[in-house]
Amino acid sequence: MKNNDIYIATMKYAYENINDELTQEKVKSYLEDQGLLEKNETEKFSEILYFVFGEIKSLAPSSKFSMKGEAYFRYLEYIALEEARTASRRATWFAAAALFMSCISVVPQYIQCF
User: Fold this and answer.
1) pTM value?
2) For a disulfide at 11, which of 27, 62, 75, 100, Cβ 3.0-4.6 Å?
3) Residue 64 backbone class (left: φ over 0; alpha: ψ -120 to 50; beta: rest)
4) Domain extent for 33
5) What is the CA radius of gyration of the chain?
6) What percent of the chain has pLDDT over 90?
7) CA dist list (Å): 60 to 56, 84, 101
8) Does residue 94 lie within any of the structural domains?
9) pLDDT tens readout for residues 100-114
10) Region of 58 on the Ramachandran plot (φ > 0 left; ψ -120 to 50 alpha; else beta)
11) Would the pLDDT of 76 be above 50?
């Protein structure tokens, strides 16, 4: 699993629950349920919290916080990038199919010439 996956999953969770009050407990249990975080990885979890939620004033597990603006826009850029990749793959397949069909349509013309 890529190291970026945990950041993207955290940003996705924060984005989907943007109107809810998030706590460290909720985020940690979500990441553990997804299999992205082990129970003893507290340093990694702290780094993720800082990346997505910024400076957390209270370290109590039940303290509430919200997604910082920079992470919000990074996640929106990630969504746009994934949509562009999907559209690009689809366009490549259509272009390949069109090229194949044009090659097939040329074969009968060559046969008639001989």
Assistant:
1) 0.73
2) 75
3) beta
4) 4-89
5) 24
6) 33
7) 10, 40, 63
8) no
9) 999 898 888 878 877
10) beta
11) yes
